[in-house]
Amino acid sequence: MNSRQRRGVILLILSVLCALGALGGVLAVIGDVNSKVGPEVVAYRVKNDINPYTPLDAAKFEEVRIPERWRPATAVTDLGTVQGKIAVTALRKGSLLQAGMYADRPKLQAGEQEVAIMIDASTGVAGKIHSGDKVNIIATYKGKRDTDPDTAVTLVSNARVIDVGRLTPVEKSGDRKTTGTIEAVPITFALAGKDVQRVAHAESFAEHVRLALVPPGTDAPVPAPNDRWYTLNGDK
């Protein structure tokens, strides 16, 4: 072996040693990081923005793995715990799902019944009504004769919303004089007494059923019986 070959062999050996040293350094760094970070565990994050009071299910979240030491003690580790619950605040895309972000769906109280009706998206408070809100339910009627005034009636004051469905195309029906397809939302209320019949009747026979959102934490004044009915002719 001549001198040039010996130098080549020595350089090759040095290169291998340097590579092994670099690999050892990388492995040492990885080991150090793992020792500091610890093992990974399962958590869940929000797939897309979720509005307050929206019903929750497993499809709205995705599984992620994060270091155990970085997972909050309140992080949800079982999606079964949120099934059938509702969001109590706005949940942003990518947020880690934690206890306190959801609650039980509002329950019926003694004497109440669940009543679901379709509300025209253009005449309701579109996108602003959620489970747990209170609304005034108002129906409008055409006069039976041309000389009869059109009327608006406050059917129910402070009706409690317990569920809001998805926007759905429906055919107009009943005594409404216009026909065709409209975009409507099924909204479920907790109502008591004759309020159930009032709302069911209005959905079938009123021209429109409108919702007036009541500010959170308050109740709208309940109108006197004579003040429930309104006509333009009587507004002087």
Notes on the protein architecture:
19% of the residues lie in helices and 32% in strands. It is an alpha+beta fold. It has 2 domains: 40-103, Antifreeze-like/N-acetylneuraminic acid synthase C-terminal domain (Type Iii Antifreeze Protein Isoform Hplc 12), CATH 3.90.1210; 112-231, no CATH class.
Helical segment tally? 2
Regions with little confidence, pLDDT below 50 for 5+ residues: none
How many structural units, i.e. domains?
2
Mean pLDDT: 79
**Total E-strand runs:** 11
How does the overall form come out from the CA principal axes?
A: elongated
Largest sheet: 7 strands, antiparallel
Kindly report how far apart the N and C termini lie: 117 Å
In percent terms, what proportion of residues is strand?
25-35%
Structural class call reads alpha+beta
Rg measurement, Å: 32 Å
Helical content band: 10-25%
- The ordered H/E elements are HEEEEEEEEEHEE
Summarize the structure.
The chain has about 240 residues and is an alpha+beta fold. Helices cover about 20% and strands about 30% of the residues.
Outline the fold blueprint.
Blueprint: H1 3-37, E1 40-46, E2 61-67, E3 86-87, E4 102-103, E5 112-120, E6 134-141, E7 151-164, E8 168-171, E9 181-192, H2 195-205, E10 208-214, E11 229-231
Antiparallel strand pairs: 1-2, 3-4, 5-9, 6-7, 6-10, 7-9, 7-11, 8-9
Keywords:
236 residues, alpha+beta, Type Iii Antifreeze Protein Isoform Hplc 12, 2 domains, seven-stranded antiparallel β-sheet, two-stranded antiparallel ribbon, 11 strands, elongated
